[in-house]
Amino acid sequence: MRVVMFGYQTWGHRTLQALLDSDHEVVMAVTHPKSDHVYEKIWDDSVADLAEKHGVPVLLRNRPDDPELLAALKDAEPDLIVANNWRTVLPQEVFDLPPHGTLNIHDSLLPAYAGFSPLIWALINGEREVGVTAHRMNEELDAGDVLLQRAVPVGAADTVADLFHRTVDLIGPVVNESLDLIASGRAQWIPQDRSRASFFHKRSLEDSRIDWTWPAEDIERLVRAQCDPYPNAFTHHRGQRIRIVESAVSEGRYGGTPGRVFIREGDGVVIVAGTEARNGRLRGLVVKRVRTEDGAEHAATDYFRTMGGYLTGRP
């Protein structure tokens, strides 16, 4: 088949590499210009550089709705478009242009976690598995019929970086198997159960702010979901912002006001957490390592020299 690829960052790069390694012909790649958005500078392998290295024509677009792009697509005469991590809506005149339509690769187990940053949201929410879905694009974002899904488990200590590496390794096999099914006429498209659908927005720095009224288990997952190289989960201590780099749920149960810097436990310092903490029924968050605004990292037992005071959402 003749294939046009739409994609961006490492997800798009892996998809293009899989297409280049296949028996199909990549006739054009469309990608976004480089961005200064904090989340778009992470996992930023260049689709444009890979395409140019292999002699594939490249178009740079923020939005795919101009006459020049549509004309180039028609001239390329693709049998299929494959998209992964394209950041803006593809119009119907684009995704329905090829005879086989557009195959979108999305890093969640649709219909759950449609939209943006699915791995981060899934880890925060305590999901037991994550994965990759290949589905046919339609007019509703991430809502088209599913061709193929592959899943991996989420371990108790996994960070979002762990899940990224595990799921990005699924892209090549999912793309290759999907294209073989489509080219051979064996593709079976399964409609999504829209009653199970969920849709999440893009992450921003505000989403990394710790709310100490959350249970400690939820905050601990937030810390793992905002590990390096992502912007870390943060809070404020004595008016200064600090990032929580490593944490755990406490062994003991601690009562009091959420955010209170309370007591040492093991190799960390317990912070009271949860709206029911006043009853002494909840576990606290053991903060183990913090990072200050100058980039210096400290053991929490060194940073919190005395107990008392509070960690707060804002200065």
UniProtKB/TrEMBL annotation:
Residues of the Formyl transferase C-terminal domain: 206-306
Formyl transferase N-terminal domain sequence ranges: 1-169
SUPFAM superfamilies for the chain: FMT C-terminal domain-like, Formyltransferase
Pfam families listed in its UniProt record: Formyl_trans_C, Formyl_trans_N
Cited InterPro entries: Formyl_trans_C, Formyl_transf_N, Formyl_transf_N_sf, Formyl_transferase-like_C_sf
Alphabetized CDD domains for the sequence: FMT_core (cd08369)
PANTHER family xrefs: METHIONYL-TRNA FORMYLTRANSFERASE, METHIONYL-TRNA FORMYLTRANSFERASE, MITOCHONDRIAL
UniProt name for this protein: Methionyl-tRNA formyltransferase
Organism: Streptomyces tauricus
Organism lineage: Bacteria, Bacillati, Actinomycetota, Actinomycetes, Kitasatosporales
